[in-house]
Protein backbone atom coordinates (compact mmCIF):
# COMPACT_ATOMS: atom_id res chain seq x y z
CA UNK A 1 0.00 0.00 0.00
CA UNK A 2 1.33 3.46 -0.92
CA UNK A 3 0.64 7.05 0.00
CA UNK A 4 -1.80 7.89 -2.79
CA UNK A 5 -4.09 5.11 -1.54
CA UNK A 6 -5.36 7.63 0.99
CA UNK A 7 -7.98 8.76 -1.51
CA UNK A 8 -9.43 5.25 -1.34
CA UNK A 9 -9.71 5.47 2.42
CA UNK A 10 -10.32 9.20 2.83
CA UNK A 11 -13.74 8.52 4.24
CA UNK A 12 -12.27 7.73 7.65
CA UNK A 13 -13.85 9.76 10.39
CA UNK A 14 -11.69 12.42 12.01
CA UNK A 15 -12.24 11.21 15.51
CA UNK A 16 -11.87 7.98 17.36
CA UNK A 17 -10.21 6.30 20.24
CA UNK A 18 -9.69 3.24 22.28
CA UNK A 19 -9.26 1.75 25.64
CA UNK A 20 -6.41 0.12 27.58
CA UNK A 21 -5.96 -2.39 30.40
CA UNK A 22 -5.82 -3.13 34.02
CA UNK A 23 -6.76 -5.77 36.44
CA UNK A 24 -7.29 -6.48 40.05
CA UNK A 25 -4.50 -8.13 41.96
CA UNK A 26 -3.89 -9.23 45.53
CA UNK A 27 -5.49 -8.01 48.71
CA UNK A 28 -9.12 -7.34 49.45
CA UNK A 29 -9.52 -3.57 49.25
CA UNK A 30 -9.60 -0.96 46.49
CA UNK A 31 -6.48 -0.01 44.59
CA UNK A 32 -5.59 3.24 42.82
CA UNK A 33 -8.03 4.20 40.07
CA UNK A 34 -10.94 2.72 41.97
CA UNK A 35 -10.50 -0.93 41.00
CA UNK A 36 -10.96 -3.48 43.75
CA UNK A 37 -8.00 -5.79 44.19
CA UNK A 38 -8.70 -9.51 44.10
CA UNK A 39 -7.44 -11.95 46.69
CA UNK A 40 -6.02 -15.27 45.52
CA UNK A 41 -9.34 -17.00 46.30
CA UNK A 42 -11.53 -14.04 45.26
CA UNK A 43 -13.55 -13.42 42.14
CA UNK A 44 -12.97 -10.21 40.19
CA UNK A 45 -16.31 -10.32 38.37
CA UNK A 46 -18.14 -10.57 41.69
CA UNK A 47 -16.20 -7.58 43.01
CA UNK A 48 -16.95 -5.54 39.89
CA UNK A 49 -20.64 -6.40 40.18
CA UNK A 50 -20.66 -5.46 43.86
CA UNK A 51 -19.15 -2.02 43.31
CA UNK A 52 -21.17 -1.42 40.13
CA UNK A 53 -18.24 -0.25 38.02
CA UNK A 54 -15.44 -1.70 35.90
CA UNK A 55 -12.17 0.23 35.55
CA UNK A 56 -10.44 0.31 32.17
CA UNK A 57 -6.97 1.81 31.77
CA UNK A 58 -6.36 3.81 28.57
CA UNK A 59 -4.03 6.40 27.06
CA UNK A 60 -6.69 8.78 25.77
CA UNK A 61 -4.28 10.26 23.20
CA UNK A 62 -4.40 7.70 20.39
CA UNK A 63 -7.09 8.53 17.83
CA UNK A 64 -9.18 6.82 16.58
CA UNK A 65 -8.83 4.18 19.29
CA UNK A 66 -8.91 6.35 22.43
CA UNK A 67 -8.96 10.16 22.46
CA UNK A 68 -10.77 13.29 23.60
CA UNK A 69 -13.21 14.92 21.20
CA UNK A 70 -13.63 18.67 20.69
CA UNK A 71 -15.86 18.84 23.74
CA UNK A 72 -13.12 17.24 25.81
CA UNK A 73 -14.99 13.96 26.28
CA UNK A 74 -13.12 10.67 26.22
CA UNK A 75 -14.24 8.51 23.30
CA UNK A 76 -12.97 6.28 20.52
CA UNK A 77 -13.49 2.74 19.34
CA UNK A 78 -11.90 1.08 22.38
CA UNK A 79 -13.70 3.40 24.78
CA UNK A 80 -17.13 2.77 23.30
CA UNK A 81 -16.56 -0.99 23.06
CA UNK A 82 -15.53 -0.95 26.73
CA UNK A 83 -18.70 0.95 27.63
CA UNK A 84 -21.04 -1.50 25.90
CA UNK A 85 -19.22 -4.49 27.42
CA UNK A 86 -19.59 -2.97 30.89
CA UNK A 87 -23.27 -2.36 30.13
CA UNK A 88 -23.66 -6.02 29.19
CA UNK A 89 -22.16 -6.92 32.57
CA UNK A 90 -24.64 -4.61 34.29
CA UNK A 91 -22.09 -2.08 35.53
CA UNK A 92 -20.66 1.33 34.61
CA UNK A 93 -17.39 1.73 32.71
CA UNK A 94 -14.78 3.93 34.40
CA UNK A 95 -11.51 4.98 32.73
CA UNK A 96 -8.07 5.73 34.16
CA UNK A 97 -5.82 7.59 31.71
CA UNK A 98 -2.04 7.43 31.60
CA UNK A 99 1.04 6.57 29.56
CA UNK A 100 1.44 3.09 28.12
CA UNK A 101 4.11 1.84 30.55
CA UNK A 102 2.05 2.99 33.53
CA UNK A 103 -1.02 1.19 32.21
CA UNK A 104 0.85 -2.08 32.00
CA UNK A 105 2.24 -1.57 35.49
CA UNK A 106 -1.27 -0.85 36.75
CA UNK A 107 -2.50 -4.07 35.19
CA UNK A 108 0.24 -6.03 36.92
CA UNK A 109 -0.26 -4.40 40.32
CA UNK A 110 -4.05 -4.66 40.28
CA UNK A 111 -4.95 -0.98 40.05
CA UNK A 112 -7.27 -1.58 37.07
CA UNK A 113 -9.67 -4.30 36.02
CA UNK A 114 -8.56 -4.46 32.39
CA UNK A 115 -7.11 -2.29 29.63
CA UNK A 116 -8.88 -0.75 26.63
CA UNK A 117 -6.14 0.53 24.35
CA UNK A 118 -5.98 -1.50 21.16
CA UNK A 119 -3.80 -4.10 22.87
CA UNK A 120 -2.28 -6.53 20.39
CA UNK A 121 -2.14 -10.21 21.30
CA UNK A 122 1.45 -11.46 21.07
CA UNK A 123 3.11 -14.72 22.09
CA UNK A 124 5.12 -12.89 24.74
CA UNK A 125 2.05 -11.23 26.25
CA UNK A 126 0.08 -14.48 26.24
CA UNK A 127 2.68 -15.94 28.58
CA UNK A 128 1.75 -13.29 31.15
CA UNK A 129 -1.90 -12.40 30.48
CA UNK A 130 -5.15 -14.08 29.53
CA UNK A 131 -6.83 -12.36 26.58
CA UNK A 132 -10.47 -12.15 25.61
CA UNK A 133 -11.59 -13.10 22.15
CA UNK A 134 -10.46 -10.44 19.62
CA UNK A 135 -12.79 -7.51 19.03
CA UNK A 136 -10.70 -6.05 16.19
CA UNK A 137 -8.05 -7.08 13.68
CA UNK A 138 -5.31 -4.66 12.85
CA UNK A 139 -2.56 -4.24 10.25
CA UNK A 140 0.72 -2.66 11.32
CA UNK A 141 2.36 -0.37 8.76
CA UNK A 142 5.66 1.48 8.42
CA UNK A 143 5.12 5.24 8.21
CA UNK A 144 7.80 7.42 6.63
CA UNK A 145 8.21 10.81 5.03
CA UNK A 146 7.34 11.07 1.36
CA UNK A 147 10.94 10.95 0.13
CA UNK A 148 12.01 7.88 2.15
CA UNK A 149 13.65 4.95 0.37
CA UNK A 150 12.21 2.42 2.84
CA UNK A 151 10.05 -0.03 0.90
CA UNK A 152 9.81 -3.14 3.09
CA UNK A 153 10.06 -4.28 6.70
CA UNK A 154 13.56 -5.56 5.97
CA UNK A 155 14.62 -2.04 5.00
CA UNK A 156 14.27 -1.06 8.67
CA UNK A 157 17.64 -2.68 9.38
CA UNK A 158 20.04 0.01 10.58
CA UNK A 159 17.28 2.66 10.63
CA UNK A 160 15.95 4.66 13.58
CA UNK A 161 12.32 4.43 14.64
CA UNK A 162 10.21 5.75 17.52
CA UNK A 163 7.38 4.07 19.42
CA UNK A 164 6.30 3.64 23.02
CA UNK A 165 8.64 1.26 24.81
CA UNK A 166 7.30 -2.27 25.10
CA UNK A 167 4.67 -1.73 22.41
CA UNK A 168 4.17 -4.34 19.68
CA UNK A 169 5.34 -1.67 17.19
CA UNK A 170 8.68 -1.21 18.95
CA UNK A 171 9.21 -4.95 19.23
CA UNK A 172 8.44 -5.48 15.53
CA UNK A 173 10.73 -2.65 14.44
CA UNK A 174 13.61 -3.98 16.55
CA UNK A 175 13.05 -7.51 15.21
CA UNK A 176 13.84 -6.11 11.76
CA UNK A 177 17.04 -4.45 12.93
CA UNK A 178 15.84 -0.92 13.73
CA UNK A 179 16.94 1.11 16.74
CA UNK A 180 13.84 2.30 18.57
CA UNK A 181 13.51 5.52 20.57
CA UNK A 182 10.87 5.57 23.31
CA UNK A 183 8.12 8.21 23.07
CA UNK A 184 4.96 9.05 25.00
CA UNK A 185 2.39 9.04 22.20
CA UNK A 186 1.75 9.03 18.45
CA UNK A 187 1.84 12.82 18.08
CA UNK A 188 5.35 12.97 19.53
CA UNK A 189 6.40 10.23 17.11
CA UNK A 190 5.14 12.21 14.12
CA UNK A 191 7.01 15.31 15.31
CA UNK A 192 10.26 13.31 15.40
CA UNK A 193 9.57 11.86 11.96
CA UNK A 194 8.73 15.18 10.29
CA UNK A 195 11.77 16.87 11.85
CA UNK A 196 14.07 14.18 10.41
CA UNK A 197 15.19 12.85 13.79
CA UNK A 198 13.98 9.32 12.99
CA UNK A 199 13.63 7.38 9.74
CA UNK A 200 10.26 5.75 10.34
CA UNK A 201 7.60 4.77 12.84
CA UNK A 202 5.27 1.78 13.04
CA UNK A 203 1.59 2.04 13.88
CA UNK A 204 -1.86 0.91 12.81
CA UNK A 205 -3.00 1.47 9.25
CA UNK A 206 -6.23 3.03 10.54
CA UNK A 207 -4.28 5.43 12.77
CA UNK A 208 -2.25 6.63 9.77
CA UNK A 209 -5.37 7.30 7.69
CA UNK A 210 -7.06 9.02 10.60
CA UNK A 211 -4.03 11.30 11.03
CA UNK A 212 -3.86 12.09 7.31
CA UNK A 213 -7.58 12.81 7.27
CA UNK A 214 -6.95 15.48 9.89
CA UNK A 215 -3.59 16.64 8.44
CA UNK A 216 -3.88 16.27 4.63
CA UNK A 217 -0.86 18.53 4.13
CA UNK A 218 1.50 16.13 5.93
CA UNK A 219 4.22 14.69 3.68
CA UNK A 220 3.88 11.14 5.00
CA UNK A 221 3.26 7.76 3.41
CA UNK A 222 2.85 4.08 4.16
CA UNK A 223 6.15 2.56 3.03
CA UNK A 224 5.47 -1.06 3.99
CA UNK A 225 3.07 -3.21 5.98
CA UNK A 226 3.19 -6.33 8.11
CA UNK A 227 2.03 -9.51 6.40
CA UNK A 228 -0.50 -10.67 8.98
CA UNK A 229 -3.13 -8.66 10.87
CA UNK A 230 -2.72 -8.52 14.63
CA UNK A 231 -5.52 -9.55 16.99
CA UNK A 232 -6.77 -6.84 19.37
CA UNK A 233 -8.24 -7.99 22.69
CA UNK A 234 -8.65 -7.09 26.36
CA UNK A 235 -5.88 -8.49 28.61
CA UNK A 236 -6.47 -9.80 32.10
CA UNK A 237 -4.05 -11.05 34.70
CA UNK A 238 -3.54 -14.77 34.42
CA UNK A 239 -5.06 -16.00 37.68
CA UNK A 240 -8.08 -17.86 39.01
CA UNK A 241 -9.72 -14.62 40.19
CA UNK A 242 -10.23 -13.44 36.61
CA UNK A 243 -11.62 -16.62 35.04
CA UNK A 244 -15.29 -15.69 35.43
CA UNK A 245 -14.66 -12.14 34.18
CA UNK A 246 -12.89 -13.51 31.10
CA UNK A 247 -15.83 -15.78 30.33
CA UNK A 248 -18.36 -12.96 30.83
CA UNK A 249 -16.40 -10.58 28.61
CA UNK A 250 -16.14 -13.23 25.89
CA UNK A 251 -19.90 -13.74 26.04
CA UNK A 252 -20.40 -9.98 25.73
CA UNK A 253 -18.02 -9.69 22.77
CA UNK A 254 -19.78 -12.58 21.00
CA UNK A 255 -23.17 -10.92 21.53
CA UNK A 256 -21.89 -7.53 20.32
CA UNK A 257 -20.44 -9.16 17.22
CA UNK A 258 -23.67 -11.04 16.51
CA UNK A 259 -25.95 -8.00 16.90
CA UNK A 260 -23.69 -5.80 14.76
CA UNK A 261 -22.58 -3.40 17.51
CA UNK A 262 -18.86 -4.04 16.96
CA UNK A 263 -19.18 -3.49 13.23
CA UNK A 264 -21.22 -0.33 13.74
CA UNK A 265 -18.66 1.17 16.14
CA UNK A 266 -15.79 0.22 13.84
CA UNK A 267 -17.41 2.00 10.90
CA UNK A 268 -18.15 5.01 13.10
CA UNK A 269 -14.57 5.49 14.23
CA UNK A 270 -12.48 3.95 11.44
CA UNK A 271 -14.73 4.28 8.41
CA UNK A 272 -14.22 0.57 7.76
CA UNK A 273 -15.09 -2.69 9.51
CA UNK A 274 -12.00 -4.14 11.18
CA UNK A 275 -13.91 -6.59 13.39
CA UNK A 276 -13.38 -9.58 11.09
CA UNK A 277 -10.00 -11.18 10.34
Description:
The longest helix is centred in the C-terminal third of the chain and has 16 residues, at 243-258. The chain has a three-stranded parallel β-sheet with strand order 4-1-5. It is of the alpha/beta class and 277 residues long. The chain is built from nine helices and 14 strands. Helices cover 31% and strands 19% of the residues. The radius of gyration is 18 Å and the shape is globular.
Summarize this entry quickly.
The protein is α/β, with parallel strands linked by helices and 277 residues long. It contains 9 helices and 14 strands.
Average pLDDT over all residues? 86
Structural class: alpha/beta
Largest sheet: 3 strands, parallel
What is the tally of beta strands?
A: 14
Percentage of helical residues?
25-40%
From the alpha carbons, calculate the radius of gyration and give it in angstroms: 18 Å
List keywords for this structure.
277 residues, alpha/beta, three-stranded antiparallel sheet
What is the topological layout?
Layout: H1 44-51, E1 53-58, E2 67-68, E3 74-75, H2 77-88, E4 92-97, H3 100-109, E5 114-115, H4 123-126, E6 129-131, E7 136-138, E8 140-145, E9 160-163, H5 168-175, E10 179-182, H6 186-194, E11 201-204, H7 205-214, E12 220-225, E13 230-232, E14 235-237, H8 243-258, H9 261-270
Parallel strand pairs: 1-4, 1-5, 9-10
Antiparallel strand pairs: 2-3, 6-14, 7-13, 8-11, 8-12
